[in-house]
## 1
Amino acid sequence: MKTIIYTCPYVPAEWIAAHGLRPSRIMPGAAGSTSPVGRTEGVCPYIRGFVNEVIRNTQASGVVVTTVCDQMRRAFDIIMRRCELPAFLMNVPSTWQSVAAHKLYLDELRRLGEFLVRLGGKSPSSRALAKVMLEYDTARTSVLTTRGYLTSSQYSELIAEFNRDGKSGITTTINEKKPFTGGIPLAIIGGPLLREDFGIFDVVENSGGCIVLDATETGERGMCAHFDLRRLRDEPLIELSNAYFGSIPDAFRRPNNQLYNWLKRELACREVRGIIFWRYIWCDIWHAELHRLKQWANLPVLDVDVSGDEQALTVRTIQRIHAFLEVLQ
Amino acid sequence: MNNAPTQITLEEWDERYEQLRRAGLREPGYGGPLGRHVGDGDRRLLKLRYDNSVASLRLWNFLLTEEDRLHNARAEGKRIVGTMKDLGTVPVMAYSLDNVVAFYPDGAWWIPCVMELSAGLLETADSLGIDESFCPVRAMLGAFVTGAHFPIPDQLVCSVGATCDDFSAIAQRLNGLGYPILWWEIPHRRHPEPNEAAVRLPGGFCAPKRQVEFVKSELERVRAALEGLAGQRLDDKKLSAGIQKANEVRSYLAELRQVTFTAKVCPLPALEMLIAEMLAIHFCSDREETISVLKELIDEVKTRVQAGRGVLGADAARIFWVNPVADLQVMNLLEDCGGRICGTEYLFSHALDTIPEDLPPAEALARMALADPMVGSSVDRAERICADIRRFGSEAVLISRIPGASHCALEGEVIAEVVQSRLKVPVLEIEVPPVTDSIRPTLGTRLEALIETVKERRKR
Ligand code: SF4
Ligand code: SF4
């Protein structure tokens, strides 16, 4: 089956799968010094990693890039010039409160569908789409129900696996597991994690904490809402659009109060005592939220700026996390 | 009095001003010696060199008195719109209403340069978590907080979507500080799909018809907000009249650019041309006066061209400049190094193109907004640059990177590749911070190297 790769949470896996193609939301590794992006200064390390991954990927039949940030939009230009892989740039509006913005997103899904058909996909009937959505929804729910029964790193890796492999990758059950407890409850908030960044969960646990809310783009925050079954049956594409475009909170949206509303709810219900703010250097979108978050959250915030080197978790970062948790003890 | 075209210092201008005044110089109300603006803290002015014409004196005075005009407008009961990021679209709408003025708070971009970092705006931005990893537009945040550089607008309107991350993030920060903003979406301009209805945009790009319709609907939201603010209708008739006026400004600018960039001897320096171009985006808060200022400049330039006189040597290397410079002095530096500007893409070429007058006005504006070189791909932008290089006969391209700017990190490479492959002209990329004093020798060496390359190529 042909694989379509992407990294943005606003690309619905269900839509690609319903076209008979394999969606894979990849998690790039750090590009290090080998990136085809000539410059390093000024370029978000995640973008460098993503471009690198796309250009070197030999398995994919197509790539979907979105306009959620200026650098990603421009990364598309680089991908188009540096590799042969068919590429699609999907407009994901920054505004979200108007009907027109939702309609634009929906139009873009249809246009994406045409791209998928050009790659050999088959335009799905509403019934076929609804069936795929239901399967994904079930799988997603089963991932979400493991929260609290797995270590934070296992849980976030499970989400990453679900993103990468879709429904077929989910085999974990919680039947025999006991709730996982212990450690100072922390949230990690920010953009996406690179592969190398996953060590953060263990670092936190080894320092006496526990990440109970993975609000990174690659974590729970980047998962779409549960589908409404009635709407799924009646208007599956519109429901898909609602669950993705209408529900995933992110810093890039204008205004982005949806993100803060979501955080308010999740931080409170998980009794979070501290926040690790994970941001890449040169990422303006997340960087600009740091100060506001500090003022807003009424919780201690540790700012971790990541350069995207292969050595993601530097000794300094580990020590800072350790000290942060010591203070929270 | 020596009236031969030349560049002079601020001190020399003030002496010349006295001579002109004694000789009967007639000026608009905002006129006066340029040196007085240093008293407002604009210290960089002391280090610039200026064109010595009366037309340029008027241009500078017009630019440097905008804040007074905005305060006067408020005192007269007019409503003030802070239009952000779109560079050229919303002001056309706002100035179609007789009781509204619009300006770009984005213009605070230049305050750190003009005030040589003395205004403390960057420090204020720092204190709000917006540090030097953002582009100099972060000064805008400081300007809002201090309230010292422009009156706080009655309404803020900001385009988002296919815009830079710097501005989007900073505007959101501003919003988070309690400044309400009307956000409108400008989508990434894409190429039409096969068999998709397409529309040609001002400036030559193409866009899908449905994107134009979407932007039109967004601009209708802006129109409704402006009507609410002004307390009067902004009907198509008024909007069409506003477009005609904007086109008048644009046609004068087009003429000025054509005559200046193609003249054998450079008739007007780079700095004055940069400022003249900037008038197009929001008319420096006075549309009628913008037209008069431009007319006078064109007369001056034509007179000089006819006389074969100019401000630089005839062999100056003809440079196409990409992106505005954060430090205005670099425009002087290019000329010191033996170059002249023959073609520009200062991020707002769409504000220089004629807006279609044979279409419903909202659609015409939507087409114009989508023609923004920054909302499409870097390849599109490079193609437009190539077309202008051919038109103006530029011999090299200088891409001036803006520190921290999200678009500069990746677009320079693409623009350079496209231009070199299409036209085989040399391309140089430099980075220009708001004050370049400490890197002036290095910058100078790099500019000289480019200019030498151009001159060597002429011998082939
Ligand atoms: S981390 Fe920031 S700059 Fe990087 S891709 Fe995400 S939003 Fe864009
Ligand atoms: S990043 Fe570029 S486009 Fe954006 S505000 Fe700065 S200079 Fe302007």
## 2
Amino acid sequence: MKVSEIAEILNAEIVAGKELADMEINSACGSDMMSDVLAYFKDQGILLTGLVNPQVVRTAEMMDIKCIAFVRGKRPDGTLTDLAEERGIVVMLTDETMFTACGLLYSNGLTEAGRHE
Amino acid sequence: MNKRLHYVIDGDDFTSAGQASGDVKKVLKTLGVPSEIVRKASIAMYEGEINMVIHADGGVIDVDIMPDRIVMALKDSGPGIPNVEEAMQAGFSTAPDTIRNLGFGAGMGLPNMKKYTDSMEIDTKVGVGTTITMTVKIV
Ligand SMILES: Nc1ncnc2c1ncn2[C@@H]1O[C@H](COP(=O)(O)OP(=O)(O)O)[C@@H](O)[C@H]1O
Ligand SMILES: [Mg+2]
């Protein structure tokens, strides 16, 4: 699924990495705990989160996660979007809740990120 | 391709935490280290860097990149770890809620560091500090 399709499904606004809209995303994970993301997910893909601070971008960077969707209408500041822009990571914002955002993507064919045991 | 990197980690700056790990990741990529190895090393270092900031008021990190391995030494003068065996257990955390609200403190850092590296040594003394040395093999 392309980044642009994900943005459309989530009715999301892309605020960083606009030029990467054609990038393919094949898996997803949703969490507000970066520790859990670092522990359990092994694919790249998209991270859905309601946590807004620059460590979300750092976590994505370390994990080779290519796209972050902030749920529940959370709005990151310029420090965060600049960091993402610099790292080539897409940031999008949606008003959907975590549950609904994950559900929408799942029912449109995006599945869970591979999991470490 | 021997390379040594040195970082001073500011214990008061949660926003910048992870900068050193991001830099190491960039250097490893530039050196052509396989991406799965880069990923393992940078996740492990990032967890260690975050720990330094949230548990130990900062410290220093030395990274040695050799042809066959990456050695990361994280040294702090924080409170030390009273019971390493307990700290190594998945889910064990002394982090306060303020840290959990920032997305960390799930007690997965040390287990992650062990999982993503080929060896990890913890040298710690209560009231003196902690040095964690991790090695990731390249070949
Ligand atoms: N550098 C450190 N200095 C002092 N204590 C530490 C350090 N690193 C880890 N710890 C202790 O070990 C516990 C477990 O660490 P970790 O697995 O990373 O979980 P978390 O950071 O989420 O609490 C911490 O809660 C803390 O008590
Ligand atoms: Mg930790």
